[in-house]
Every structure is written in C-alpha cells, then in structure tokens.
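haha ok so turns out i had the wrong file open the whole time. this is the CORRECT one, sorry everyone. sequence first:
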Amino acid sequence: MAIAACRAGALGCLDLEYTVDAVAASAAVERLRRFASGEFAVKLGPMSGVLIDALFSTSLPPWIILAGEDHRLGNGLDERLFRTNRKQC
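then structure:
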C-alpha cells in the first residue's frame, strides 16, 4: 500500500508501530525506498526502540511518525532526528 500511495503522488506510510523484528523492518524500509517514487513515512510506536539502530544504520526515511503517547524509544532518538533535520509529525 505504501509503495502504491507513493507512486500515486501521495505520502505512503510504512506502519512499523507493532514491529519488533529489526531485520524485517529494515528490509521493508529498503524495499519501500527502492520501489516508491517520492517521499515516504515510517510510523513507529512506543515500543519501537529495538528498531531505531536498524533504521539509523541506513539512510533514514524522509518522514518519521511517532504514534501513541508514551515514547520510550531510547537511543537518543529525538537528538538524532534533530541532528539529521528529519521531518517529525
């Protein structure tokens, strides 16, 4: 769906909110990056801390959506996003 949305000119979003498998998440992001045209978003949830290092090991997605209220992502996510000038919503 995210690839199709990007190809149609919309902002496609890959929902990783409940994903805990960093390898699978990285593969999905890279697949989206490869096949989507234009910008896309990745949605992370409060328990997505295990994905952060995997996402930062490659180039970050243009948009990162932090879903939920209590984010304990750790790994200095806010600071890392600020330094990379990522769009946050």
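The helical segments are 2-7, 22-35, 49-56, 77-84.
again sry for the mixup
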